[in-house]
Amino acid sequence: MGLAIAFPVARQLAATGHEVHAIMGARTKDLLLLEEQFRSILPEDHIHITTDDGSYGEKGVVTAPLERLLQDKAVNQVFCVGPVPMMKFSTLTAEKYGTPIIASLNPIMVDGTGMCGCCRVEVDGQTKFACVDGPDFDATKVDWNDLRARQAAYRTEEGQSLKAYEEANCACQR
Questions:
Q1: Is the backbone of residue 110 left (phi > 0), alpha (psi -120 to 50) or beta?
Q2: Which of 129, 151, 155, 33 is nearest to 85 (CA)?
Q3: Helices 84-96 & 63-71, crossing angle to 10 degrees?
């Protein structure tokens, strides 16, 4: 059986003879990441690409190819990394088939020691810190709603920062 997994782990496992599948998704083709890296280590039929707008690969989201792989029993372990909603729904899909799934969380991390608490996440009813206790957790035990709310806490500031960056770096502003 194969694995659906993220690139660094995929490279290690493929190098040791494990069967690995990569499912990559993005809103559009231009936002797709790591395609060439995965193509360099995996056979073509083990690469599954989705775009929300259908500009490349299969139109839709990553849970569609994930569900097909799980239905076909082509994978027996899933590893996901990416936006919280994608990881939440990948988890729900894997759970439906009783397949273990690990999520690599990427909340804001300030000090890397757990002291600041920015990367706090609830896992199996316990407070964990992604910077020291993770970032990889059993995805079925992550409180996805809490994580989503915590990551939205700085949305206003992130928008202001992006706007300032774009204004400072736009050729029309020079």
A1: alpha
A2: 151
A3: 20
pTM value?
0.86
**Pairing state between β 58-59 and 19-26:** unpaired
pLDDT for residue 44: 96
Task: Report the distance separating Cα 133 and Cα 115, nearest Å.
Answer: 12
Token pair in block for residue 55? 């500009």
What whole-number distance in Å separates Cα of residue 21 and Cα of residue 165?
37
Asked if the bond preceding 65 is cis, omega within 30° of 0, the reply is: no
**Strand pairing report for 19-26 and 47-51:** parallel
List pLDDT tens digits, range 2-45.
444 567 778 888 888 889 999 999 999 999 999 999 999 999 99
Could you tell me which of 47, 103, 43, 107 has the C-alpha nearest to residue 78? 103
Q: Coil, strand or helix: which one is 174?
A: coil
DSSP string covering 6-45:
-HHHHHHHHHTT-EEEEEEEESSGGG--SHHHHHTTS-GG
